[in-house]
Amino acid sequence: MFTGIVEELGTLRRRDDLSGAARLTVGASTVVTDVRAGDSIAVNGVCLTVTDADTSGFSADVMQETLDHSSLGKLAAGDPVNLERAVTAHTRLGGHLVQGHVDETATVLTRNPDEHWDVVRFSLPVQLARYVVHKGSITVDGVSLTVSAVGPDWFEVSLIPTTLERTTLGSRRPGDTVNLEVDVIAKYVEKLLTDGGRA
Known about the structure:
The chain has helices at residues 64-69, 161-166, 184-195; strands at residues 8-18, 21-27, 40-43, 46-54, 57-63, 80-85, 104-113, 118-123, 137-140, 143-150, 154-159, 177-182. By secondary structure, the chain is mostly beta strands. A six-stranded antiparallel β-barrel has the order 1-2-5-4-3-6. Strands 7-8-11-10-9-12 form a six-stranded antiparallel beta barrel. Strand 1 and strand 2 form a beta hairpin. The chain is globular and about 45 Å long. The two termini are 23 Å apart.
């Protein structure tokens, strides 16, 4: 479980394509201070299991399905990545509950810089539209954000300077692909209301 508060902007140092998988080696300093093999780190919002780590970074294996259904499949050496360690019982919940399970990818549609923030519009996959509401929470590339506007096939967020400086969202441009995770609470509420919670 994560909070969507990015701890560090890391760099993909190496990508080794394997049979039906890939091994990603990420350069980092903050998130590896107390990490061990088997721990979870969200990379651009995707929960990955650390296979090995040292003071300069960590490695993780990514299955083909994850590569096919998230933006991790497009990563190349040198690309920046958003990093967050899994929460602990002593972690402040500064964002919202994030699982690190990407629901869909989306595309940056427009970007409008303002004096104090950037307003960014993303495509909204039709199957996720019912979970996205004005002033609700959504995770984009692992960043917990508040929806500032929403339409039938798009949503917008307003990115403050801290988010622009400390996450990959500061450099995303129209046409770029991002990972989306909607608020899991909305999905549970829907299930309870539609079928009484039956499996």
